[in-house]
Amino acid sequence: MPRDRAPGTVAVRLLAFPGVDDLDLLGAYGVLSKAAELTRAGPPPWLEVALVADRAQLETAGGLRLSVQTGLDEVSSPDVVVVPGGRGVRQVLEAPAYLDYLRAAHRSGAALYSVCSGALLVAAAGLAAGATLAIHAAKRDALTELAAGCRPGTGLVRDGSLTSVGGDRSGSVKSVDLALQLVADHAPRVLPELLDRMELRQGRTLVTVPAGRSEGDRAAEAPRTTGPDRAAGASRATAGADRP
Fold this sequence. Notes:
Layout: E1 9-15, H1 22-39, E2 46-53, E3 57-59, E4 65-67, E5 70-71, E6 80-83, H2 89-92, H3 96-107, E7 111-115, H4 119-124, E8 132-134, H5 140-146, E9 151-153, E10 155-159, E11 162-166, H6 174-186, H7 191-198, E12 206-208, H8 215-219, E13 224-226, H9 228-233
Parallel strand pairs: 1-2, 1-6, 2-5, 6-7, 7-11, 8-9, 10-12
Antiparallel strand pairs: 3-4, 10-11, 12-13
Helix pairs in contact: 1-6, 1-7
C-alpha cells in the first residue's frame, strides 16, 4: 500500500460495514468532514476524509443506507483509519478483507483510531497484543481473548500508534471526542475554528500509555495528557456486540 497523494494530504478513512453503529461512525464522520473542509481553505496539512468498505452501499445498525466512497482495495495507503464498533463487528471479525486492510494500513505506518467495540477489529487483525485499548465495559473479556496481553482501558487512550475510546460514561460522545483528538493530532491549525463552528468541547482528555509501561503502572503516576481543548486553548465479539 504505497502513498501516492499530493504532499501535505492526510488521507483519513473511516471503516464502514453492515451493522456499524450509527453514532460511532457518523459522529466521527461529521467532525472530520467539517475539519477537512476547513483545511482546504489554508495551507497543508489537508484532510481527505472518506468511508471505506467492501461494498458500494451498506446499512447501518440503525437502518440508515450509506453510499461508500472508497473500496478496501484502494491502491494508496491511508494515513489514518478510524474503526467504529456496532453489532456488525461480529461478522467483520470473520471477514479477511477488513482485517487485511487494517494490517496493511498498520504496516505502512497508518495511525489507528478505534471507537468502543471497534477495538475488537484491531485485536482480531493482530495489532493489539500487549497494548492498552479502551473498549466498552461489556467487551473487555472478548478483547483479551482476541489479543494476548492486551489490556482493556477506559476513556480516551493512546498506546503507540493506537488511539481508542470507550469503557466510561461521559456527557460527551465517544466518536466525537476521538475525532476531535484526530484533528488535534493531524490538523491542529483548524481545531479552534472547528470547535467554534460546531460549538463543541472535548469531553475526554487523552491519556498516553508510556512506552513499555502497563496501564496499572500509568495509574500510579500523573498521566501525560493532551487534547483538543488544550490545543484550542493555545490558539468488544459475542452476544451484545451491538453496543457501541
